[in-house]
Amino acid sequence: MGEFELIRQYFQPLASNASNDQLVLGPGDDCAIQRVPPGRDLVFSVDTLVEGVHFPPHYAPSHLGWRALAVAVSDLAAMGAEPVCFTLALSLPEADSDWLAGFAEGLSRASQAFGITLAGGDTTRGPLTITIQVHGTVKAGQALLRSGAREGDRVCVTGPMGNAGAALDYLEDPEPGALKRALLASYHGPQPQLKLGASLAGKASAAIDISDGLLADLQHILEASGVGAELDVASIPMSDELRQLQGVRALDLALTAGDDYQLCLTIAPETLAALPAPVREQLTVIGRIVPEPGLTLTGAPAGYQTQGYDHFGRSD
Amino acid sequence: MGEFELIRQYFQPLASNASNDQLVLGPGDDCAIQRVPPGRDLVFSVDTLVEGVHFPPHYAPSHLGWRALAVAVSDLAAMGAEPVCFTLALSLPEADSDWLAGFAEGLSRASQAFGITLAGGDTTRGPLTITIQVHGTVKAGQALLRSGAREGDRVCVTGPMGNAGAALDYLEDPEPGALKRALLASYHGPQPQLKLGASLAGKASAAIDISDGLLADLQHILEASGVGAELDVASIPMSDELRQLQGVRALDLALTAGDDYQLCLTIAPETLAALPAPVREQLTVIGRIVPEPGLTLTGAPAGYQTQGYDHFGRSD
């Protein structure tokens, strides 16, 4: 008990990290209390990260703290919601103070960056497992769902694809050069598209965050919406670093690698045209929604075949 | 992916278990959506159960499903809140269909009994770990906190103590008799005091659910409220089965064993007297709040000393 009281002290400062008048009662009672403003919906999502499955063994605790919260918060971005608070359920094999200090530091940086406050949690002894539930709010009825894509909508993404996936190759590199470091930053410090997501609430017709790879996640939108899509792969945004380091493999990573936490959205062309320029300029149109189920790629280099996407064409 | 899609199918029916118009969007999108009615606060709590720590290895999955949700829902009872929905983050070493069917059955029975609907979740491969977050609502400002106990308030409990703690001795008994079976039922199928808790919202001055033992959990109220208490241990309710099976050890179990998930409440005497009889009759007064910090026991048998309570008298 003393040990776990100690652990909680590492996280106590996070309970006042973001000023937030929605959080009526934070950690320390049987429950926390959130007062959702009238006219807004509560939006929430839970994500678990297991050592050796979702992050490498002995992964730097500071990176892990940031990543764990960023991955969870990205689901709020995909709904167009604004972050409010989160809970942390942490299983630890032992109370290692260096590890705890690093993890709390990364988590704290992320919570300040995303404007989300620790509301409660549970600490238990067990194999290293991190479960975070994030709470946000969105104007009632304006959350971005997966099911709203309609024929003629444009398919858009919010930034370059494939960087974090490529970085998996470099995690053990003792002296990565500048190019590799740029990609590693995408893996260690994903930036959920919170502002962009919130600015598209009630405007985009569907959205998802890209955690499993562009093709796999877009397929979730298509299935939920009962439509298909044509993608122009030549228009898919990729970083210079990815192209230089990965050559012909870059496109495959951009289509199929996860961990980037950009958003994939669909939006009617007239709505897209009417967006304020600063918002519209952050979107790259990569295709359009068609009525027939299935996903068709055009513009691929001759002989190109994706390697990592099992579901390819399965709706045909 | 196919395997985990299969797992989700076991839990899909739980998403429509309780009719609930607050749950605007259930599992299957990036987030779930809850619409909290005007004038009510959202109340939430997360609990993790790890195999070998919080339940025995190879514990019957049906019992585990019930217990996991009951333990979490009990925190809503302690706030005086009414259950709405919950999320399930489940780590499993493998997708064993017998285990999954049993766990889902117990979880489903509990969700129907408590009127709480599955809103979302995450399933990962890893050591068996169950994290459940429960959501409830309470009239704004009427949640029962730990911090409101005042001098003169009566200390009450909602039912017999020590049954589940005693049952830990009998979990491996191949043929338990009727007395032991009665106590085992308390361990396998705890009944969170939801109705009683909700009927005391805005009336009791403080509340906690007894998960770690009466003395330890009452101490949380005393510390949060900055007061002390005198308990008359002769008035602590114990079952006949506990007295018969445990003899002189019964009182110690009633004071220090967890897992019963009754509530401990404090309430002003005039408020207690004004409660409707059907509510008041479910409460047993076991002591009163005093201004001096610390916990004093009176009425104990000659020579009695509690065995399992480290913090005993530490505030003196």
UniProtKB/TrEMBL annotation, chains A, B:
- Residues reported to bind Mg(2+) 5: D212
Gene Ontology BP terms: thiamine biosynthetic process; thiamine diphosphate biosynthetic process
Q: Where is the PurM-like C-terminal domain?
A: 150-298
Which reaction is the catalytic activity of this chain?
thiamine phosphate + ATP = thiamine diphosphate + ADP
The record lists Mg(2+) 3 as bound by D30, D75, D209
CDD domains tied to this protein: ThiL
Q: Which residues hold substrate?
A: H54, D259, Y309
Q: Which GO terms describe its molecular function?
A: ATP binding; magnesium ion binding; thiamine-phosphate kinase activity
Presence of the UniProt keyword Kinase in the record = yes
Q: Which Gene3D superfamilies match?
A: PurM-like C-terminal domain, PurM-like, N-terminal domain
Q: Which residues bind Mg(2+) 4?
A: D30, S45, D75
Pathway membership:
Cofactor biosynthesis; thiamine diphosphate biosynthesis; thiamine diphosphate from thiamine phosphate: step 1/1
* Residues noted as binding ATP in the record, renumbered to the chain: G121, D122, R146, S211
Per UniProt, the enzyme's principal EC class comes to transferase
Provide the PurM-like N-terminal domain boundaries: 28-138
Print the keywords alphabetically.
ATP-binding, Kinase, Magnesium, Metal-binding, Nucleotide-binding, Thiamine biosynthesis, Transferase
Binding site residues for Mg(2+) 1: D47, D122
Binding residues annotated for Mg(2+) 2, in chain numbering: D47, D75
What's the short name of a Pfam family annotated to this entry?
Answer: AIRS
Q: What is its EC number?
A: 2.7.4.16
In the record, the note on similarity to other proteins reads:
Belongs to the thiamine-monophosphate kinase family.
Extra info from the record? Reaction mechanism of ThiL seems to utilize a direct, inline transfer of the gamma-phosphate of ATP to TMP rather than a phosphorylated enzyme intermediate.
Q: What does this protein do?
A: Catalyzes the ATP-dependent phosphorylation of thiamine-monophosphate (TMP) to form thiamine-pyrophosphate (TPP), the active form of vitamin B1.
Tell me what this protein is called. Answer: Thiamine-monophosphate kinase
| Protein source organism | Marinobacter vinifirmus
Taxonomy of the source species: Bacteria, Pseudomonadati, Pseudomonadota, Gammaproteobacteria, Pseudomonadales
